[in-house]
Design brief:
One of its GO terms (biological process) is chondroitin sulfate proteoglycan biosynthetic process. GO terms for molecular function: acid phosphatase activity. InterPro entries: Acid_Pase_AS, His_Pase_clade-2, His_PPase_superfam, Histidine_acid_phosphatase. It catalyses: 3-O-[beta-D-GlcA-(1->3)-beta-D-Gal-(1->3)-beta-D-Gal-(1->4)-beta-D-2-O-P-Xyl]-L-seryl-[protein] + H2O = 3-O-(beta-D-GlcA-(1->3)-beta-D-Gal-(1->3)-beta-D-Gal-(1->4)-beta-D-Xyl)-L-seryl-[protein] + phosphate; a phosphate monoester + H2O = an alcohol + phosphate. The structure is a single chain. This protein is α+β, with helices and mostly antiparallel strands and 486 residues long. It has a domain of 316 residues: Phosphoglycerate mutase-like (Rossmann fold), CATH 3.40.50.1240. Strands 3, 4, 5, 8, 9, 10, 11, 12 and 13 form a nine-stranded mixed beta sheet that branches. A two-stranded antiparallel sheet has the order 1-2. The protein has a two-stranded antiparallel sheet with strand order 6-7. Strand 12 and strand 13 form a beta hairpin. Helix 8 crosses helix 9 and helix 8 crosses helix 10.
């Protein structure tokens, strides 16, 4: 009898523990659900995914709308026509002779391993332009026109966020940009002759794929297939003027300056250290606010949940604080006294190559279009050399464009052809010609439509590159400037 009673007591105790466990689970899981779901507001956009993605088998994914934080992403929806071409369309005394375009590649995956990267969907919503482009690539009969890139993948993975690689969103950005510029320039001159077009890309897959998408959108398929792509080994398009002993020393001074600014901001410094630990998987990644921003952009630009690690999570407000600090820092970064010199040395080979193409436009009437597909640093170096320095030019957004338009004045016929030609500089749709350091005098007013529109003489650019380029170093050539102490 005692054994029966003892067994009954044990059974009652087990039932009681089971009831307690059920009650605890009923309380814990709903609370956990609401805690997680409260972290972000969802905008309910449905985005197309692909069954080919290794880690995705869903028909749709709900993205988070980070609202104002996404301005750094430069989504295809906000890329639009700016000041490009407006002078040529309105002034009959001017003829557009040619266009040089430097682009930053489109949206890419992070440069460093970040937490939960396999759960981030980097796909784009389905649209006819994107689908038509993929169909065009799949039906190309020969890849020889791609030159050194003929063995490279023509487009990125459908949904995967691969380290440093272009995403489908990046393709969409470049298609939109090419289409906009085609609508601007096609009434002004023809892109029908492949001999009139030169396309350069750095050796990286993301810049090549960006160049190909842009070229498809601005040219006809027949013309595109007759152009041979050219490759540059360097970020800066330095060509034959790459090695320079003092550039590392100048760059160190610039980095030391922004490191000192960060040290004086103890609260933001601690925030950066904390977010760095949460976001980055590898311990060898340098703690740096700009590296951190690049990594966090992968979540923000693709509407993915911000990461957590060891019960600590990145919040939207944390990201807003980081971005606000970097906006503040970039304004000071742009004013660093050594930045102009650094840009001059890093972009000298690029400036020479551009000058060669400018002179051909003037003397031979071609090329009509020159594309350089590059990086944020490519644009930063060149704009710094030109003296166009502000917070927007230090880290240009994905799919940023820097456009040089070359015009001929039809009312002039001088013995020196270079005196008949002018150019203007447009960065992300905004005319910045007036801020170019060698264009402060000798302007040509573009006409009665807008007295604020000015053109800079081509001869000013040629004189700057061949005679005045190294004045800031009190030197006469590249080697001499590189031997100077910063």
């Amino acid at each position: 009898m005692a054994y029966v009673q003892a067994g009954a007591v044990r059974n009652m105790a087990r039932h009681r523990y089971l009831v307690y466990l059920i009650i605890w689970l009923c309380i814990f899981f709903p609370a956990l659900y609401f805690k997680i779901s409260d972290r972000h507001i969802l905008d309910g956009r449905i985005v197309n995914t692909s069954n080919n993605a290794a880690h995705k088998y869903f028909e749709s994914v709900i993205r988070i709308d980070y609202k104002d934080l996404t301005k750094v992403c430069n989504s295809p929806q906000i890329i639009e026509h700016g000041d490009e071409g407006n002078i040529g369309l309105l002034n009959t005394s001017l003829t557009l002779q040619g266009v040089i375009v430097l682009t930053r590649h489109g949206d890419r995956g992070p440069m460093n391993h970040i937490r939960n990267i396999d759960d981030i969907d980097c796909g784009t919503s389905a649209n006819s332009e994107y689908n038509d482009y993929l169909e065009f690539l799949q039906n190309i009969s020969s890849l020889q026109f791609l030159g050194p890139f003929h063995e490279s993948p023509l487009y990125p993975s459908e949904n995967t966020c691969s380290l440093s690689q272009l995403t489908p969103v990046g393709i969409s950005q470049m298609l939109k940009l090419g289409r906009i510029l085609r609508s601007v320039y096609s009434p002004l001159f023809s892109f029908a002759n492949s001999d009139d077009i030169i396309i350069y890309s750095t050796k990286y897959r993301r810049t090549f794929q960006s160049a190909l998408a842009f070229a498809y959108a601005i040219l006809s398929p027949d013309v595109l297939s007759k152009i041979t792509f050219k490759e540059s080994d360097s970020y800066s398009y330095c060509f034959d003027h790459c090695a320079c002993s003092i550039t590392d020393k100048i760059h160190l001074k610039i980095k030391q300056s922004y490191s000192r600014r960060l040290k004086r901001r103890e609260v933001i410094k601690k925030l950066i250290q904390r977010l760095h630990t949460i976001v980055h998987v590898m311990s060898n990644v340098k703690v740096d606010p700009y590296i951190l921003r690049d990594s966090i952009m992968t979540y923000v630009c693709h509407g993915a949940p911000l990461p957590c690690y060891q019960d600590d999570c990145v919040t939207t407000e944390n990201v807003r604080e980081l971005f606000k600090y970097l906006d503040w820092d970039l304004e000071r970064y742009a004013k660093h006294g050594q930045l102009h010199k650094y840009g001059l040395l890093k972009s000298y080979g690029f400036a020479l190559n551009m000058a060669k193409n400018l002179l051909k436009m003037v003397s031979e009437g071609k090329p009509r279009l020159v594309l350089y597909s590059g990086h944020d640093l490519t644009s930063q170096y060149l704009l710094s050399a030109l003296g166009v320095l502000n917070s927007q030019t230090i880290i240009p957004y994905y799919a940023s464009r820097l456009v040089f338009e070359v015009y001929r004045d039809n009312t002039l016929d001088t013995p020196d052809p270079s005196k008949d030609f002018y150019f203007r500089v447009i960065f992300n749709g905004l005319d910045v010609t007036r801020t170019v350091l060698f264009c402060t005098s000798g302007f040509y007013s573009a006409g009665p439509t807008d007295q604020a529109d000015y053109l800079c003489p081509i001869e000013s650019a040629i004189r700057f590159i061949h005679e005045d380029y190294f004045t800031a170093f009190n030197a006469s050539n590249f080697k001499e400037a590189c031997d100077k102490q910063p």
